[in-house]
Give the backbone structure.
Amino acid sequence: MRLSVSNLTTGYGKAQVLFGLTLEVATGELVALLGANGAGKTTALRTISGLLRPWGGQVWLDETSLQGLSAAQRARRGLGHVPEGRQLFPLMSVEENLRLGAAFLAWPYRQEGLERIYTLFPRLAERRKQVAGTLSGGEQQMLAIGRALMGRPRILMVDEPSLGLSPKLAEEVLSTLAQVKAEGVGVLLVEQNVALSLEVADRGYVVEHGKVVLSGSARELLSNPGVQKAYLAL
Ligand code: ATP
């Protein structure tokens, strides 16, 4: 499956944020979306997932246009989203949070999903009865990713998973995304830590003022002088 975003425009009120964003993510690849604060990365993910209305442009999953579909309908078609700030239910247990991620699936998928998430994140299995609000930051991020995976997405968009985490935990969370990719899911990763994200990504896009100004393999981006200067402090 392939997510294709073509010429997407949107904004808030009169303030335009996306100026014709175009990108693609296929299943089985990990793609980084890079850019300075305010470039429009979060806005892009929210528009693709159906939380924000586009002004123009198109989002496709293979040959199917997602135009006019709600976020829930897009999730059913295979598009997962781990929002910035995790948005967990802090008073509910780990397992209850996970089950909510599969609420729209038939029962056998729900059970199978739990086992898969606990294999991927053994730390969540140990804490399945603990309320989400008392988990560490890294564990909460794993839970947010696990909950999105419970919906069996083919393409998973993840917004700033390392925010507020120690470098070691950030690395752990990003390496689980590499595992998710290895299971055949396409991952679109928005990440402040450009060096770390290009370590796990296959390729990436650099966004400036709401559109893609550069794209290439992770290796090409890492050796690009503009990227080094702007994002890698070299
Ligand atoms: P960051 O890495 O800082 O999160 P970003 O690239 O994800 O940056 P966005 O969060 O998409 O950027 O924000 C793009 C622009 O849209 C910014 O100028 C921001 O102030 C503005 N913006 C974001 N959300 C809203 C909102 N709800 N209402 C009005 N303006 C908004």
